[in-house]
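User: Good morning. I'm curious how zinc ion would be positioned relative to this chain. Could you predict the structure with it bound?
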Amino acid sequence: MEMIGHGGKEIVERVLPKDAAIKRVAELKAAKVKTLDVRLQLATEILDIAYGFFSPLEGFMTKADVQSVCDNMLLADGKTVWSIPIVYDISSEDLEKSGIKQYDEVLLNYTGNPFAIFDITDIFTLDKKEVAMKVYGTTEDKHPGVKRTYQYQDKFLGGKITLLNPPKINEPFTRFWLTPKQMRERFKEKGWEMIINHQTRNVPHTGHEWLMKGAYLGAYGSMMVDKPRGGILVNAMIGSKRPGDYIDEAIILCQEAQGKHGYFREDIFLTTCTLWDMRYAGPKEAIFHACLRTNLGCTHHMFGRDHAGVGTYYDPYDAHRIFDRLPKGSLNITPIFNLDWWFCPVCDEVTYMGLCGHKDKKASFSGTLIRSIIQDGVKPPRRIFRPEVFDMIMESAEKYGFGDAFVTEDYLKRRNPVFTIEPLK
Ligand SMILES: [Zn+2]
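Assistant: Good morning! Here's the predicted structure, ligand included:
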């Protein structure tokens, strides 16, 4: 089966089989190679690299890659589109203490267990302000992506990653996490040839439901009903959270509920997740999402209003316009640009900005409105939230959110990790 990913290259998979990994770790320990402990942020990206979510990247970026991504939105090869730096940071003190030098092979541990091998080919520094300006269009640390950039330590390590120890994905995420290769196998089983990706970090109200239905109708309008050859892939971004975000468990379970309860036929609908800390880079992140979903095997990607934006840093449709600036053929996925869906009391239905002529009467699905509905906990009309979806929000809040559907400090401290790395044996 074809496993070609972003950049026209074979999907990267750098994961040692278990027996080989155990042997390799014993050798590395006997050779007393240097070790580093990685934090969750880096562990997440190591998994993304090793399983090919970031194909064609085979490791953390070198300085040449970061510079080229910032300056030209291309990898250092000068032709592969890439918009967000993927970097491994370390403090000067820790680097010195470790004694790590260029071309060292280093054993990475996570939560005390052997995790990956890092072949270090570059040790470098970055001008963080320059990176912030070029990637996020601002140097204000109120922007969460800029803040993350400024929080990086002062040195960076570039080089290839090989995973030694696969993650245990914990409940309720286990059935939703599929590697790019597994994802493509699933599509094949389903007989899907066209796959529309819906990126989300929300629980779905009917506005989202119709966004997906609209994209489906647009892309598949001419398909035969008896044999759907395509479907909608909901791919939730699961990663670092900010207070006030929806809890990850509610997002994934409520998305799934739409298929379970027939708002989408189950044979055209699949809910999955990818581990990624949102950078809120707006247009640049839209390009990144397109590359990521190409690797998952998607043929189409939906981009809504203010895709991956935050605050007022980006024009709501900048994330649409940026695709026009890419050289033709540089992405192997078709963007579907969505305008707003809203509830119109005159039409008495959920309708589309491009169709409904009652703009002045519309009731938008504003974040504030939706949030207050959820906080009240009183079941809203089904044309705003499907009752089964709303029940699942409440259930997830109780079961996973310590009583809250939104992220609280308590949740950040006490939540069950999405994945764990167990002893290698
Ligand atoms: Zn109307």
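Residues 192 and 230 are 4 Å apart (CA to CA). Residues 344, 346-347, 351, 356, 358 surround zinc ion (CB under 6 Å).
Let me know if you'd like a different ligand tried.
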